[in-house]
Write a structure and sequence with these properties.
This protein is of the alpha/beta class. The chain is 43% helix and 18% strand. The strands form four sheets. It has a six-stranded mixed β-sheet with strand order 4-3-5-13-6-14. The protein has a five-stranded mixed β-sheet with strand order 9-8-10-7-11. The chain has a two-stranded antiparallel ribbon with strand order 1-2.
Length: 360
């Protein structure tokens, strides 16, 4: 049944036609720039999508987290959400985003990589304060993966300096993750009362015992496990625990003085504002800090930042007596300039060792 309209004057008909034309133009403009909102009623699209860019070893966790978030979002909004995903090395992923990979959210291995995206103008300054825990969504620590039974009894960073110990690790100049290994060794001295000179001596001796530096953590792992290189691999606790879950048996030690490997997440402001995805992306990153998502990170070996979940999974993680952070070493800006820029401490260590090429 249609409602019958009364007669209207030509002037009213013209006015309504012009109003309709203006509304049509407004609808067209809104449909190009985001969801259309008229008064208090919103007509959002029935489906929305966005892209998550992360580092490789997080994929097993996100494979569980994403369906749970999608179900929650649909129950709350009635809207289907699809999350496209990209995984790879943290540094190359950051570079890909800078070069045009359209990420709505990035979850990377170290804040330095997100700071590079910020510097490129894609993320607004202050992103660390936008989420709980300074946007750190999970953690890990460096560990020593040894040959079966730890025949050389390697327990501390100082043990890695002993004559005859062959170390496998990646090059911190080519691998962002390998910087955690360097900083773990350096801080093992400076965060327990030692001097910078003593820290330099320790790290120099450690890298003297690393005859070949791999390009990245994956290459280092392959060299140790599949090619039989070295006596000890400096790796990450989350990778060892994930391998254990998959049935692999690895002998490893968690140094009792250690650095917290803090893994941050951030919204890529330039992308979400252009695509109109900010609301759903904000909901997603907030979901990552819930006990539900934190438990999934813990199941694949990451240390949760949620205290309740951390207590629930505490037994699977090695004990650390002195746990320090990059902030304790001055923050990433200072750390990068002091240790890893061209001509900085790591290059000086390499020069003392005869200027060898630290890659395969």
């Amino acid at each position: 049944m249609f409602a019958r309209c009364g007669r209207r004057s030509p002037q009213k008909i013209l006015a309504l036609a012009l109003a309709g034309l203006g509304l049509s133009m407004a609808i067209a403009a809104c449909s190009q720039n985001g969801p259309l909102i008229l008064g208090s009623a919103a007509t959002a699209p029935r489906q929305i999508n966005f892209t998550l860019v992360s580092f490789a070893v997080t994929q097993p966790a996100y494979d569980k987290i994403i369906p749970q978030f999608a179900a929650k979002w649909k129950a709350e909004t009635g809207q289907e959400v699809s999350i496209f995903q990209s995984y790879g090395g943290s540094g190359p992923q950051a570079r890909a985003v800078i070069d045009g990979l359209e990420a709505d959210v990035v979850a990377l291995a170290l804040a330095l990589d997100i700071q590079k995206i910020e510097k490129a103008g894609l993320i607004q300054p202050g992103w660390e304060q936008e989420l709980p825990n300074q946007s750190i969504v999970h953690r890990s620590v460096p560990v020593f993966v040894t040959r079966d039974g730890n025949p050389k009894n390697l327990q501390t960073w100082q043990d890695l300096t002993r004559p005859g110990v062959r170390i496998v690790t990646a090059n911190p100049k080519t691998s962002g993750g390998a910087r955690w290994n360097f900083l773990g060794a350096w801080g093992a001295v400076t965060q327990t009362g030692g001097t910078a000179e003593q820290a330099l001596a320790l790290t120099t001796q450690i890298y003297q015992n690393a005859p070949v530096l791999a390009r990245d953590a994956r290459e280092a792992t392959d060299g140790f496990l599949r090619q039989g290189q070295g006596d000890v691999l400096i790796n990450y606790e989350n990778e060892v625990l994930l391998a254990k879950k998959r049935g692999e048996s690895l002998s490893y030690v968690v140094p009792r003085v250690n650095i917290s490997i803090d893994n941050p997440v951030a919204i890529v402001d330039a992308v979400v504002d252009r695509r109109g995805t900010r609301e759903v992306v904000e909901a997603f990153v907030e979901f990552l800090f819930t006990p539900t998502a934190q438990a999934e990170f813990a199941k694949v070996g990451f240390r949760p930042v949620d205290p309740t979940v951390a207590a629930e999974y505490a037994d699977q993680f090695g004990e650390v007596d002195t746990l320090f952070t990059v902030a304790d070493l001055g923050g990433w800006k200072q750390v990068q300039a002091q240790f890893f820029d061209d001509g900085a401490v790591f290059d000086q260590i390499q020069a003392k060792m005869g200027g060898r090429t630290p890659t395969k």
